[in-house]
Amino acid sequence: MYIGKKIQAKGTLLGVPTVFEIREQLTTNDNWVRRGLKAIYKMQTEDEKLMQVTTEDNGVGFSGVDAELLSSFAEQLESRGSLSPKQMVYARKKMKKYAKQLWTLAYQKAEARVANAPAREPFLGSTISQGRTGGANHLNNLKAFAKTYRTPENSQILDKVIGAVGATSRDED
Questions:
Q1: Of all residues in the chain, what percent carry a pLDDT higher than 70?
Q2: Which residues contact 154 (CB under 8 A, 6 or more apart)?
């Protein structure tokens, strides 16, 4: 499965790390490995979970080679809440290959979050199309937008835009 740079950039705007960043986190962060194992395991069919094998070629879940061991790790996480240090080393190595599936899950979750976000007042376009209504209205609309959609990745850009619009509104008023 290929995930293009444009799609990953769109995901970044939604607060989704890139596939590369996910791989990096899986390399260094035990929590990411545990959460990733559980997420991929949930994508296995019920039969695959029962038998701890991959029976369907559906492009999701563990591969046939990894299904037995990684399914047992995921089940152990569910029952005990942890893996041994040796299991974690092995899981960390194997989970990197599932970074694209994890990215897809995170992207779908982020899209659903945005789709279910409460409706807001129309953004800048409506006040601009109605003519000059004053920079203060634009600034208020931008601040409302930023409050709803701010992520660590776009925070700096939003702050710069708000600062520029704020300076313009002071000049107009």
A1: 66
A2: 12, 13
